[in-house]
Amino acid sequence: MKDKALSYVYHRPKADRKDYERLLLTLNIRYGKSVNSSTARRELAHLKQSASDVDCFADNVRGKVYEAYPDAENFNRAQREKISVDVLLLGVQNSSAAQIVANLQPTTIDTAVLELNRIILDQKVFGKPKLQVRGVTF
Fold first, then answer.
1. Sign of the alpha-carbon torsion through 63, 67, 68, 71
2. At what angle do helices 20-31 and 3-10 cross, to 10 degrees?
3. C-alpha closest to that of 56 among 107, 104, 92
4. Global pTM?
């Protein structure tokens, strides 16, 4: 520790400095992230991929899901993975690739990223598929 953090700890009661858990809690309260889970959930609803690649966007999604649904709220890994996949597919730039991956129903965000990257590469090489629409008359 240095600078302000060291000064902050030095001026805490001795009991806070001697107990590692209390010290960690005190520092997290003072310098930790101030985003609570309800704020993170609202941010998830508007999370969109920027210029970054799919892998970086997936990392952002995964981190935001863990902020939104922390361990203390009894969310297991499978539930977080499902939410992560949904947010990833809704926020990715290439919506046609996202739709194809959604139809594959991936169970983990890693599988979704793998499939997205594969489909995006295929689209670059072969072009995006063109949907044929036929008119129906009565």
1. positive
2. 130
3. 92
4. 0.68
